Amino acid sequence: MPRHYAYLKISEGCNNRCRFCIIPSMRGNLVSCDIGDVMAEVERLKNAGVREILNISQDTSAYGMVNRFQYASPKILKSMKRRPLQRII
Ligand code: SF4
Known about the structure:
Layout lengths: L4 E5 L1 E2 L10 H5 L3 E2 L2 H13 L4 E5 L16 H9 L5 E2 L1
Parallel strand pairs: 1-4, 4-5
Antiparallel strand pairs: 2-3
């Protein structure tokens, strides 16, 4: 893997129940990492020379879900965008 990019796990589990998928029964419901911890890891990676971060989880768009209408994924993307990284996926 090139040293300029890294995978960053931002949550684990999933609240959806797609019939074909075993992940919710294996990993449980969605649990999001604290946004402060995620941003600290972004900073650490940036200082280590990473310029491209790939956010990963089972349901990335549900990061920080409070309820069906409130999600924190736009907030974390805005926070990451303020860091001088070349690319956030
Ligand atoms: S992990 Fe993906 S496929 Fe599996 S239940 Fe969640 S949304 Fe569906």
